[in-house]
């Protein structure tokens, strides 16, 4: 709590600070002023919760000062001090809702009680204001949500016109919806989080003289903006740009989409729907950018990208072992997908899935271990998790590069070692997998197989089997649906305790601890 003491007598100011233990009362910040004019000026920067002021002072008396203060800070509590029994001053103090009128010389006990009463008054006002704000926020969220859901205008008119909202939207000549698509997988999309973002962007809205309501729908932050007149396309661009810059300070990955401007709050569902339609196109835009509403003709034909020639080209580049050509192909593909044609996000996802399938086919032909160049989890699930075409491109480019790396590495191994590794990748879950089984598979003696494998790889065959099994176990542990006991069996261990023991020895964590760390 902050206290301002205003008195033209220095001895009084110093005496109050010395005689009254304001800190024990809950006052943690105190400023002083020598007259009403200085006190008024200090209020603008200090913003006190309580003002303890003399009545009669040079330049400006305490009554005039507090009239000006309470115009700006109506919740500020005031305690007047005076050495005069002046009825007119007393009447003015009552009019200003003074907490108390303390006569000089000051009785410290009387003043202490007055300060306690002032503190109680301030806290009570704050509690009431918080309750009112919470009620209005709840009404704001409810009305904003219903406005984007084709509202019953008669049903909402009472809330809108009776002042239940924090903003006056009934006379807004122009309105539009703005969507913020947060790509953070851990975003809460709660009322509190939405309000936090609203506070961030409210100064931008104020600069454009826009009033604002906010809500959440389908994992999207929705902001409804209201203005006396429509923004021009240029103004909309500046506004969206400032919003994007502002959000970039607290959000890592997002898109901002503005809907069509409409007349009157009853048409906001149309604006919201246009923003949702355009949100599809943000998939082909870099992160932390904005998209303005643009009219999409009713007969627009979305471009088809799933043509056989394009897949054949990539397949030939892979089969011909042309790494640079394949990467160049992916670069050109990204440029074409981020051009001016209308393409649906799932079209792009399906296209990249087909390209990854080509890699898998080529890898199978060359007997490469798929997990070494592709994500360990479900491929379509991984693709679906990409929130932009740029993420798809990164996934495809990385997988293609790894494919050629694994392919080049396989060529340096002897056919025997390659065959051994391939056999292990296909049979690591077999509890009977052993050096004897492997040597029978490659038609060589066990001692020769062990010596050859160690000389080419630098590790023993048993070490390789253990490491391979444990790496597969780590992949399985990433899915909470897999029970640890079942995982042990799936990677070739009949004893789950033994599995846990060697897992801890290799990674420093038990399987359950490893899962919790993910």
Describe the structure.
The chain contains 22 helices and ten strands. With 518 residues, it is an alpha/beta fold. The chain has a five-stranded parallel sheet with strand order 2-1-3-4-5, with helices on both faces. Helix 16 packs across helix 17. The longest helix is centred in the N-terminal third of the chain and has 40 residues. The chain starts with a strand and ends with a helix. The model has no long low-confidence stretch (mean pLDDT 85).
**Unreliable residue stretches:** none
Could you say which overall geometry the principal axes of the C-alpha atoms support? elongated
Secondary-structure class: alpha/beta
Taking the sheet with the most strands, its summary is: 5 strands, parallel
In total, how many beta strands?
10
The Rg value, from CA coordinates, equals 36 Å
- Beta-strand share of residues: 5-15%
**What is the level 1 CATH name of the largest domain?**
Alpha Beta
Structural domains: how many: 4
Distance between the termini: 44 Å
The assigned CATH architecture of the largest domain is 2-Layer Sandwich
Multimeric state? single chain
Q: Helical percent range?
A: 55-70%
Average pLDDT, to the nearest integer? 85
Order of strands across the main sheet: 2-1-3-4-5
The CATH topology of the largest domain comes to Alpha-Beta Plaits
Q: Number of helical segments?
A: 22
């Amino acid at each position: 709590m902050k206290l301002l003491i205003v008195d033209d007598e220095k001895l009084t100011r110093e005496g109050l600070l010395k005689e009254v233990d304001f800190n024990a009362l809950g006052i943690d910040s105190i400023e002083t002023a020598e007259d009403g004019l200085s006190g008024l000026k200090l209020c603008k920067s200090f913003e006190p919760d309580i003002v303890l002021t003399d009545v009669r002072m040079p330049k400006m008396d305490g009554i005039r000062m507090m009239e000006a203060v309470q115009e700006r800070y109506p919740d500020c509590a005031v305690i007047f001090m005076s050495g005069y029994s002046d009825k007119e001053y007393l009447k003015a103090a009552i009019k200003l809702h003074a907490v108390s009128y303390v006569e000089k010389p000051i009785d410290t006990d009387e003043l202490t009680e007055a300060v306690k009463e002032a503190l109680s008054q301030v806290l009570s006002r704050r509690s009431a204001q918080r309750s009112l704000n919470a009620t209005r926020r709840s009404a704001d969220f409810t009305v904003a949500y219903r406005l984007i859901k084709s509202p019953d205008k008669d049903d909402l008119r009472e809330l809108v016109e009776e002042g239940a909202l924090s903003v006056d939207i009934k006379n807004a000549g122009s309105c539009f919806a703005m969507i913020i698509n947060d790509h953070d997988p851990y975003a809460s999309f709660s009322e509190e989080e939405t309000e936090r973002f609203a506070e961030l962007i409210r100064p931008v809205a104020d600069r454009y003289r826009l009033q604002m309501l906010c809500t959440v729908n389908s994992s999207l932050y929705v902001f409804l903006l209201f203005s006396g007149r429509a923004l021009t396309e240029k103004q909309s661009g500046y506004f969206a740009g400032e919003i994007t810059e502002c959000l970039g300070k607290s959000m890592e990955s997002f898109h901002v989409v503005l809907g069509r401007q409409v007349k009157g709050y009853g048409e906001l569902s149309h604006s919201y729907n246009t923003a949702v339609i355009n949100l599809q196109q943000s998939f082909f835009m870099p992160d932390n950018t904005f998209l303005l509403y643009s009219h999409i003709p009713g007969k627009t034909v979305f471009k088809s990208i799933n043509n056989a020639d394009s897949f054949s080209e990539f397949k030939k580049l892979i089969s011909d072992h042309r790494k640079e050509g394949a990467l160049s192909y992916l670069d050109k593909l990204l440029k074409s997908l981020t051009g001016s044609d209308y393409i649906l996000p799932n079209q792009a996802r399906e296209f990249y899935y087909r390209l990854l399938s080509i890699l898998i086919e080529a890898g199978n032909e060359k007997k490469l271990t798929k997990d070494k160049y592709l994500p360990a989890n479900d491929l379509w699930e991984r693709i679906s998790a990409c929130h932009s075409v740029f993420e798809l491109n990164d996934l495809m480019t990385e997988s293609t590069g790894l494919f050629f790396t694994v392919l080049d590495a396989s060529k340096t191994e002897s056919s025997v070692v390659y065959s051994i590794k391939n056999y292990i990748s296909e049979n690591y879950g077999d509890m009977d997998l052993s050096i004897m089984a492997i040597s029978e598979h490659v038609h060589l003696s066990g001692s020769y197989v062990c010596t050859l494998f160690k000389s080419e790889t630098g590790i023993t065959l048993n070490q390789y089997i253990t490491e391979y099994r444990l790496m597969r176990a780590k992949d399985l542990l990433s899915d909470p649906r897999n029970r640890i006991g079942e995982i042990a069996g799936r990677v070739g261990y009949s004893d789950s305790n033994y599995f846990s023991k060697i897992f801890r020895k290799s990674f420093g964590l038990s399987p359950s601890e490893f899962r919790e760390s993910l």
